[in-house]
Structure formats: C-alpha cells, structure tokens
TrEMBL record:
Pfam families the record matches: PB1, Pkinase
Domain PB1 stretches: 7-97
Family: Belongs to the protein kinase superfamily. STE Ser/Thr protein kinase family. MAP kinase kinase subfamily.
Record lineage: Eukaryota, Metazoa, Chordata, Craniata, Vertebrata
Classification via Gene3D superfamilies: Phosphatidylinositol 3-kinase Catalytic Subunit, Chain A, domain 1 (3.10.20.90), Phosphorylase Kinase, domain 1 (3.30.200.20), Transferase(Phosphotransferase) domain 1 (1.10.510.10)
Protein known as: mitogen-activated protein kinase kinase
EC identifiers of the protein: 2.7.12.2
Principal EC category: transferase
Amino acid sequence: MESEGIVIRIKTPVGDMDSSVDSPSHLNFNDLLAAIKDVMPEATVTAFEYEDEVGDRITVRSDEELKAMLSYYCNTVMEQRINGLLPEPLQIFPRAGKTPGIRNIHGLKVCASMIVSAELGMDWLCCVPLIEKSIEVKTLCLSINEHDLQYQEQLGHGNGGTVYKAYHLLGKRIVAVKVIPLDITVELQKQIMSELEILYKCDSPYIIKFYSAFFVENRISICTEFMDGGSLDVYWRIPEHVLGRIAVAVVKGLTYLWSLKILHRDVKPSNMLVNTRGQIKLCDFGVSTQVCFNLFPVTIFAHPERISGEQYGIHSDVWSLGISFMEVVGMGSNLFFFYPPLLQPLQLLQCIVDEDPPVLPIGQFSEKFVHFITQCMRKQPKERPAPNNLMDHPFIMQYNDGNTEVVSMWVCRSLEERKSQQAQRLM
Ligand code: ATP
Ligand code: MG
C-alpha cells in the first residue's frame, strides 16, 4: 500500500475536486492544506475532516492526525479489495478557521425508545415468564433488524455467545452482532436485559457504542460498533510504548464506567477492542460477564477476592486490569508464566489466593510500568490504586499524550502481518 498512489477527493461547496497522490507516505499536512487552498482560494481553511466507518467526522490538523487518517484509509482500501470492490477515493471535507456552528458530530439523533418486552417477541415471552414489567431500552436512531443485516464472518466465540461482523444495509455501515442463545436461566436473561440498559447509558470514546438489539427465535442479537482491529488477546507481545497508550484509554474507560457506578467485572484482553484509527474501547461489561463467571469461573484474570467470596468492587476491576496487561506484554514469549501452567482449575484458584501476586520480570520493562502493574495487583484490594491514583500514576501520565497514531500504525502493521502469514500458510 505504501508504494501505491491514492486519490483524495476534496469536497467543496461548489463540487468535488479529485487529486491523485503518488506517494501517500510522503504526503504532509501543509501540502494537503495548500492543495485545498488552491481549490478554495476564498476560504481560510486551517483543517479538514474525514469520515470514519460509522460516519463520524474526524478532524485533521497536524501531520500525526494525517498519518492516522491515511492508515485508516489504507485499511479501508484493503478491506474493499478483499470484498472485491474498487477502492473509493479518500474524501476530505475542508474546514474553515472560524468556529463552526453547533453541529451534530455523530450525525445520529437520539430518538425513539425501543420497548423490549413481550410485544417484541413471543419467544421471549415464552422464555421469560418471570419478567413482570417490560424493560425499556432507549437506543440510538439506528434501528436494526435481522433482514437489514448481511452477515459476513464470525469474529469469535465466547462463553456467552457468538460475535459476527455484519453489514447494515440501511445504515450503510459495518456492525458487530453478538448473538446470545436465550434458552438459559431466567436470572441470566434478566442480566442480559440490564446489560442493554447499561450499554445505552454509556457515551464515551473509550466504550464500545451500542446501536440496537433485537430478538429472533431463541436468541437475542446485540448490535454494536465494529472494531476492525479486534481484541487484544490475538496480538503478539504488545510493545510497552503501544501498551502505554492502550492503558491510558482502558483506564479512562474504566474510570468512566466507575463514575456511572458500573463495575466492568470482566476486564480481560478479549474485552479490549482496537481499531485502525488507533482507538481503544472496552466491551462486555456488566452482565453477560456473570454468565461467564458462572460457567467458567477459573481464569487467570480472576482476582483473589472473587475466589474467596469477598465483595466485588472497583479494586477487583483494577486487579484484572493489571493481570490483563501482564498477559498482553508477555503473551507467546514463554519468558514467564504467572502461575504454573496446566494447573487443574482448583489448584489455580488455590494459587491465586495463596501465592504472592505475579510480578513482571524486572529489566525487561520500564520501572514505571512494573510499578503500575505491581500496584494494580496488590493482594489486598484496598492497597490497589483508586481511580484517581490510576490516572495520576507516572506510567499513565507518561503516555497520556493523545497520540493515536502509535496505536493506529501498530494495529495496521499487525493486521498486515497477520494477513501475509495467513496467505503464506495457504500457499
Ligand atoms: P467471553 O465470552 O468470556 O467474554 P470473549 O470476550 O472472547 O469471551 P465474546 O465476547 O463472545 O468472547 O467475543 C468473541 C470475540 O469477538 C472477541 O474475542 C473479539 O475478538 C471479537 N469481538 C467482539 N466484539 C467485537 C467488536 N465489537 N468488534 C470486533 N470484534 C469483536
Ligand atoms: Mg467478550
């Protein structure tokens, strides 16, 4: 892609102007701004915008933001090619220097509320005879039903359900659809319902966007924002300077949830999603996690107090944060194991409760990072950092620089590597 030319379409009030760029990797912000000024000599253009896969406008004001836009575009082109489509030009929207009027950046209207009740599905009624009152789930005005979705591929399978990538025909966007079978206990069904309410309440750049939910036969489908980088559990030994930026977003996401009095309860790499724009978002918080805990309670992300039956709190999320980051920097390295491998489930539980918490090997990681992880994984819950202390920790402060490009480049590179490895395996 680096060596291939691209076409940039400058959208102006009087029409579109296409401009081909032979070597996008050498393009800089000022050159592009100069090209825009040539096309729009009357206006004082200081920045421009592009649209992401869900139609949100992203502003570009610097070389770094330009690079993030190009790597996002590069990935979109790859996806279009894989799907047999001709790449569309990169569309940019010049922005005048003066503050624009109030605008709806998301292009979405919060409107109708969706009543999730017996009225919406007889099967639901049959399955949930004990739900006395209907539960109202307000949703963004992106009402989705099964017929509007073109399922493309399975993204993964967890303990609660299966996640698919799908194209929403009406909304013209890719979404992730988590399909959860409903022939489960009433308690569990209630938990899933309240997860929907939690999703609706959340509005943060660090939390996955909830679009809609619907029922078909014995399953519920929950449609959310699709993250083209997938989850952190499939990445290979994340470098510390990348993980630092990821940690900032995860801590901000958790702090946001905690401010709404929501505990995540299932902080782990597979519930941290990334995209080629360099965004990091948390998913699967709240309730369906209870399902997983009941079915598969024994994982290395379980914290001591969970096992010994003490109260779950913010500190428990903090422990899981620590061990998740340990996992993603060491994954695949065989350099260290937190706990002896291949333990029987009960032995693993015993280890987590009895043994000293695992520590990162000193020398291979920065002192700030080792300290951060050690603090998060203090055995006594109260000794772990409180939300404010997490944000103020030197490791988090060091990487709280808003540099999305680092993560964006790393995601794009990793995806390309993964694709070429898959291609080699097929040869
Ligand atoms: P658990 O069921 O214990 O939470 P899990 O997180 O691995 O385990 P799921 O939540 O069902 O299982 O997710 C399965 C996989 O689907 C994830 O590992 C992730 O790679 C992918 N996935 C989930 N949500 C999205 C999304 N919004 N965008 C892209 N990929 C996603
Ligand atoms: Mg999950």
